[in-house]
């Protein structure tokens, strides 16, 4: 790609969303956003439908969002609110089904092996946390939301968010220490 | 670490990540005070920081793919045709966006992302030779003939000391509980903190890990996904059956036999002749050509550090073979199993 093309683009101010960018966006947002939707509606299939609607709407607009993260989470929240207005289906137990998402991995490239392996182990532990704590962890560490942003998205207090994170990190530290002790 | 301290650490790390200088100074002082209270605290803080960094990376999964395909499918019916130039333009946009995002991401999370490339160093022992290698972390490795080992150039500073082995090697791992030592060989992985053990992982045979001192964890390792580990103690070995893929544990009389090869010894215990010949080929750097396949033929024998002639004489007596040596090639004729 030439320099001119690049320049031309910004002059046009055209930030088009193409197939690849769309896929990237979905892949990047899926882990946390899906968990968020599940947390809100307590139903895996319903959560996916909300995600579908949100992403289909984005595609139709074909414009890159300025703050896609904030937009997506708000959109999912709205979607969930509508869902609650329409139906009141009974809750399902989803803990087991959902955990699958993170464990199965096909990563080998040895260059990043050490880091990935560690992260995988940690996220395996994170996925064992209670649902809300787990979600807060994803929102905080993966999406980089602040306590306040998380509190707003989950309709809980900032203190509760902090409390969950502190307990979550404590849990991780204990588990990691225990793992290491096993080898001594 | 107690909750109060975790709060402080999280505040500190958040402030650091967001570049809030004033808050950072204040939090830094409070953290220092806590550190001075107990020498143990530094270690706890290091670990907390590690957890912080390591949780910033989410393991890649394919979980998104299926639902994304479905979305694509839903969109297909209403997707308008687009011109070719448009596609080129949008590809350009994607690249720019990706670059911009990459930059942004990196600025925010410098410490969290391992971006630098790691070079792998490979050492090989040619047939007939045993190589002694000292890794940068002071771990020692004896590499059997016809084997090779690779390790990253950053092994000394990496969180995990990862090496890859093809063939057989004896490891004396420098003890460092903070940085587990991991060996990948065939379809197993062996994890230790500081011990000595032997790994046999020749192609086409079931890999074995024999422990001499300390404790090791062995697990199956397929496509990066580990099975539950089995833990081995001295004079035990873990075997991963090549066919079933099952890991099991066996007691051995004397793990010392497993590393006899370091002194040029060979020990065969009901070993298929095919494997025996392969071992001899590697040990003496020769090529063995046989008339028959010696299928279902096993050999039990112990050889000290002796010449190849002596080895062949013994086999001659046990299996009733005749042999001729032509330079580095040995021709074996006849032979029958007992």
Question: What would you note in describing this structure?
Answer:
The complex is a heterodimer of chains A (184) and B (338). Chain A has 184 residues and is mostly helical. In chain A, 74% of the residues lie in helices and 0% in strands. The termini of chain A are far apart. The model of chain A is unreliable at 1-14 and 88-115 (pLDDT under 50). Chain B has 338 residues and is α+β, with helices and mostly antiparallel strands. Helix content of chain B is 33%, strand content 30%. Chain B has helices at residues 3-18, 21-37, 40-54, 63-76, 84-108, 273-284, 308-319, and strands at 120-124, 131-134, 140-143, 148-152, 161-172, 181-185, 188-192, 196-201, 208-213, 216-222, 225-226, 230-232, 236-240, 247-251, 266-272, 287-290, 298-303, 321-326, 329-334. In chain B, the strands form 3 sheets. In chain B, strands 1, 2, 3, 4, 5, 6, 7, 8, 9, 10, 11, 12, 13 and 14 form a 14-stranded mixed β-sheet that branches. In chain B, strands 16-19-18 form a 3-stranded mixed β-sheet, covered by helices on one side. In chain B, β8 and β9 form a beta hairpin. The radius of gyration of chain B is 28 Å and the shape is elongated. Chains A and B meet through α1, α2, α3, α5 and α6 of A and α1, α3, α4 and α5 of B.
What radius of gyration of chain A results from the CA coordinates?
Answer: 19 Å
Shape category of chain A: globular
Oligomerization: heterodimer
Q: In percent, how much strand structure appears in the residues of chain A?
A: under 5%
What is the residue-averaged pLDDT of chain B? 82
Helix-strand pattern of chain A, N to C? HHHHHHHHH
Helix content of chain A: over 70%
Number of strands of chain B: 19
Topology:
The complex is a heterodimer of chains A (184) and B (338).
Chain A: H1 3-12, H2 19-41, H3 44-61, H4 68-86, H5 95-103, H6 113-126, H7 131-142, H8 147-154, H9 158-181
Helix pairs in contact in A: 2-3, 2-4, 2-7, 3-4, 7-9, 8-9
Chain B: H1 3-18, H2 21-37, H3 40-54, H4 63-76, H5 84-108, E1 120-124, E2 131-134, E3 140-143, E4 148-152, E5 161-172, E6 181-185, E7 188-192, E8 196-201, E9 208-213, E10 216-222, E11 225-226, E12 230-232, E13 236-240, E14 247-251, E15 266-272, H6 273-284, E16 287-290, E17 298-303, H7 308-319, E18 321-326, E19 329-334
Helix pairs in contact in B: 1-2, 1-3, 2-3
